[in-house]
Automatic annotation (TrEMBL):
Top-level taxon of the source organism: Bacteria
Pathway this chain belongs to: Phospholipid metabolism; CDP-diacylglycerol biosynthesis; CDP-diacylglycerol from sn-glycerol 3-phosphate: step 3/3; Lipid metabolism
Catalytic activity, reaction form: a 1,2-diacyl-sn-glycero-3-phosphate + CTP + H(+) = a CDP-1,2-diacyl-sn-glycerol + diphosphate
Location(s), subcellular: Cell membrane
Keywords (A to Z) from UniProt: Cell membrane, Lipid biosynthesis, Lipid metabolism, Membrane, Nucleotidyltransferase, Phospholipid biosynthesis, Phospholipid metabolism, Transferase, Transmembrane, Transmembrane helix
One GO CC annotation: plasma membrane
GO biological process, one term: CDP-diacylglycerol biosynthetic process
Family: Belongs to the CDS family.
Full protein name: Phosphatidate cytidylyltransferase
Transmembrane segments: 6-37, 49-69, 81-100, 107-126, 132-152, 173-193, 199-218
Length: 264
């Protein structure tokens, strides 16, 4: 527990500090997170990240997640998708010259991984550029959901949520997580009313509940991946916490849905 706390404080301070600073420094950090997350996925699948598909998929994830319009303005406003498609086509082209050793189906994992990671971190960066309040709202929703689900689940949790995927999660804990997220979000809006979106308290409660549930789904998706590949954690880069995917699985789902529902 001591190691977990130390890691959480140090890693959290670096991430939040650079997020508040914003700009290129935060973009570099996110690029590193994308590369580590891709490495973790490939390692779980027992594939080499330094293979041609690993390198191309990682570059594709970076092209999708990074603000390419800022650094490569001549490529146009849809440069993220254009570059992602380019690397997909390159991999499909390489498939032609492998004499059947690399098939169309083999493309699925690398580029689904690239899209999964890339689109999540793309929206994380977009939220940060649009509104620091929305960015922190997403983080606190995820953290409050995790904490609420953990403590309520330990205290009164009896009904298993999806035991085949995550045997320790309970329905009671899940509901506790949603309630915790709503309370934390309401406190944030009360403390910073001028920065909060003008959507009304009822709509806010509904949206926060949706984001909390979506965040839990993101966590369950990663749990399902780990169970399928037979690993306990996605990685070991964060002592006591596991890997980058273990920490960002919920956010990868929450930020795109926040974007979809118009919060940024």
């Amino acid at each position: 527990m001591k190691q977990r706390i130390i890691t959480g404080v140090v890693a959290g301070a670096v991430f939040l500090g650079l997020a508040i600073l914003g700009g290129t420094a935060f973009h570099v950090l996110v690029a590193l997170l994308v590369m580590i997350a891709m490495t973790e996925l490939f390692k779980m699948r027992k594939l080499e990240i330094l293979s041609f598909e690993g390198i191309l998929a990682t570059i594709a994830a970076l092209s999708l997640s990074m603000p390419t319009t800022l650094y490569l303005p001549k490529l146009g406003t849809d440069s993220n998708l254009t570059l992602f498609t380019l690397f997909l086509f390159i991999m499909m082209g390489i498939m032609v010259f492998t004499n059947g050793k690399y098939s169309f189906e083999d493309l699925g994992f690398p580029f689904l991984s690239a899209f999964y990671i890339g689109i999540g971190f793309q929206n994380l960066l977009a939220a940060r550029e649009n509104s620091l309040f929305i960015f922190f709202l997403a983080l606190f929703i995820v953290w409050a959901t995790d904490s609420g689900a953990y403590f309520v689940g330990r205290k009164i949790g009896k009904t298993k949520l999806i035991p085949s995927v995550s045997p320790n999660k309970t329905v009671e804990g899940s509901l506790g997580g949603v309630i915790s997220a709503i309370v934390v979000a309401a406190i944030m809006v009360f403390l910073y009313p001028n920065q909060a979106p003008e959507i009304g308290i009822f709509r806010l409660i509904i949206l926060v509940a949706i984001f909390s549930i979506v965040g839990q789904l993101g966590d369950l998706v990663e749990s399902s991946l780990k169970r399928y590949f037979g690993v306990k954690d996605s990685g070991k880069i964060l002592p006591g916490h596991g890997g980058i995917l273990d920490r960002f699985d919920s956010m990868i789902f929450v930020f795109p849905i926040m974007h979809l529902l118009g919060l940024f």
